[in-house]
Design brief:
By secondary structure, the chain is of the alpha/beta class. 30% of the residues lie in helices and 21% in strands. It contains eight helices and nine strands. A hairpin with a 5-residue loop joins strand 8 and strand 9 (222-224).
């Protein structure tokens, strides 16, 4: 067993074993137990009472966090020439089509989000085997396949994220940075949980949200009481 570092001990000392915290407490505590020299991400993990293998229990959606993620999102706009200026004006980092199709076929995927349009999905669809496993494949449900290219890019840049439940029934995403104030961390977390609640499948039986954990990069997880999000 590896040695526990001084910082790991300091983190665990601040957490009460077995305690479930309110979101207000957790938003403050996650800052106190983080000792990284960089501005760590704040992550949320939600275990759901769904069976993701069944199509009618899949939970997938988008949320616009009130305070963004704190992360610089690199956007590739794969659009027709008449939409290129709109994409650039909205802040896309890379804009084009055929040259990026070839570049991605060659292994380049150095972006966080790809925005495209229905008329060019024939070309983009060829890249499914490369983009799919990396979570980069554009999808109309997440708003990344749209004719409103500028609006979609602006929303992503301002903190709109998409998420989906994994095969273990867990939704995991980043909702900010440790440098955020506790209020901003809380408000982003509340917006995310509210969105998860709205997406509850009709076919899901029993307890929908089984557990919620808040953590930062390299910090222990803090269990958060689900009902505290509604207070």
């Amino acid at each position: 067993m590896g040695r526990i570092t001084k910082n790991q001990k300091a983190s665990s000392d601040k957490l009460e074993k077995g305690k479930v915290y309110s979101i207000d407490e957790a938003a403050e505590l996650v800052k106190e137990i983080t000792f990284t020299k960089f501005d760590a991400s704040v992550d949320i993990d939600v275990r759901l009472g769904v069976d993701p293998r069944k199509a009618n229990q899949m939970v997938r959606g988008v949320v616009s966090l009130p305070h963004g993620t704190g992360k610089e999102v690199r956007v590739l706009a794969m659009v027709t020439p008449d939409k290129e200026q709109e994409a650039k004006d909205a802040g896309a980092d890379y804009v084009g089509l055929d040259e990026y199709v070839e570049k991605i076929k060659g292994g380049w995927t150095d972006v966080d989000v790809i925005i495209t349009m229905p008329p060019v999905m024939g070309k983009v669809g060829q890249l499914g085997r490369i983009l799919g496993p990396r979570g980069l494949m554009p999808n109309p449900k997440s708003g990344t396949v749209t004719m409103e290219v500028g609006k979609a890019i602006s929303e992503v840049k301002q903190g709109k994220i998409d998420f989906k439940v994994d095969k273990f029934g867990i939704v995991h995403t980043s909702i900010g940075k440790v440098s955020f104030s506790p209020d901003k961390i809380k408000e982003n977390a509340v917006e995310f949980i509210n969105t998860i609640n709205k997406l509850k499948p009709v076919a899901a039986k029993g307890t929908y949200i089984k557990s919620i954990y808040l953590s930062s990069t390299m910090s222990p997880g803090i269990q958060v009481e689900a009902k505290s999000f509604a207070e």
